[in-house]
Amino acid sequence: MMVALSTRGTTPRFVGGCVRDALLDRPVKDIDIATSDAPEIVLEKLAAAGLKSVPTGLKHGTVTAIANGQPFEVTTLRRDVETDGRHAEVAFTDDWLEDAGRRDLTFNAIYCDLDGTLYDPVDGLADLRAGAVRFVGDADDRIQEDVLRILRFFRFFAHYSSGDIDAAGLKACKDHAHQLPRLSAERISAEMLRLLSALDPVPTVQLMAEASVLSQILPGDQHINNLRQLVKIEVDAGSPDPLRRLFVLGQPDKPDAKTFAASFRLSNVQKIRVLALADRMDNLSPDLPDRDLRKLLYIRGVEAALDASYLNQAKAAKDRAGWTGLRQRIDRWRRPQFPLKGQDVLDLGLPAGPQVGELVKAMQAWWIAGEFNADRDACIAELKRLI
């Protein structure tokens, strides 16, 4: 990949998260490459090397290259011509310093050649080593270019900081927080979930609240103390979960859960989980008998029960061993297979219609009440009795 892009005297460089995380010995996820070549030249070079490419965003200089099944984002050096806080009109350049000047944070503007040579035009390496999260240049300018950088600032602080928050950056975030509602719900939720995936995001969330940032993206009450208690339990259990944390931070009641999920434009899977979180399982506790636990797990599911165990433990704030034991019981449970289907009702002569579904539900309730012990023969016998 890099060899192909290095032809005709060009020196492409890795940049952004892949360089940052490699320097910290963290897992590298996405790989971004910067080059002085125009997008059309990048496409030509990739084609000449027999590599697949996708013109992802030619207007903004980005081509996605595919090598060995892995995508690489290759972007031409650029400078901002005009910005409105959400979108930018860019012009291509061959000036690496100009490209670095439009990036968000100093440690995201570290470049690396194929031979490992670093190019650090804005002192990002020193900030990275110090655990300092700072905007490139003037913080106000960076945020006015893209308001999303407010949330990125806090997200990176939660994951990479090892000291106090940068005062200038915090002030700029507070001054521009009122612009956050301009962002799409999808961009906000993506940033918040990534922020909340940090081992302990509570200090960052507290700073967001103090800077009037949190209230712009999470109207109503914010339950930071509840989040703090949940995070302690999750960290102790080795099971941090950003969606569960987001729910606890907002703590919507069951009637408000749909609105809460919609406000963040969550996926259908995430919406279902939020609704389950809002449908409390107040009876779930370490003292719950096995018989009742099996019924609850069959009806509500393992994921919902595990989520409820963390929420209920956070409220109880005691008996760590008991809650750990409860989650072990949940993990060991295996869902039994209900022996009957609608066809079994039809085979006994009942005509198709709503009554078939009602009978199946009634039989399933009978089977559950009997602790799932009735086999198929016993279920058929009971079905005949009902018909």
Please describe what this structure looks like.
By secondary structure, this protein is α+β, with helices and mostly antiparallel strands. Among the domains are: 130 residues, 2-Layer Sandwich (Beta Polymerase, domain 2); 45 residues, no CATH class. The strands form two sheets. The protein has a seven-stranded mixed β-sheet with strand order 3-4-5-2-1-8-9. Strands 6-7 form a two-stranded antiparallel sheet. Helix 7 runs antiparallel to helix 10 and helix 14 packs antiparallel against helix 15.
Contiguous runs where pLDDT drops below 50 for at least 5 residues? none
CATH architecture of the domain at 1-130: 2-Layer Sandwich
Question: How many β-strands, per DSSP?
Answer: 9
Specify the structural class: alpha+beta
**Largest sheet properties:** 7 strands, mixed
Approximate shape: elongated
Relative strand content: 5-15%
Q: What is the subunit arrangement here?
A: single chain
Average of the residue pLDDT scores: 94
With strands numbered from the N-terminus, the spatial order across the biggest sheet is: 3-4-5-2-1-8-9
Please work out how many helical segments DSSP would assign.
21
CATH superfamily of the domain at 1-130: Beta Polymerase, domain 2
Tell me the span between the first and last alpha carbons: 70 Å
Share in helix: 40-55%
For the record, the CATH class of the domain at 1-130 is Alpha Beta
CATH names the topology of the domain at 1-130 as Beta Polymerase, domain 2
> Rg, please?
27 Å
Question: What order do the helices and strands follow?
Answer: HEHEHEEEEEHEEHHHHHHHHHHHHHHHHH
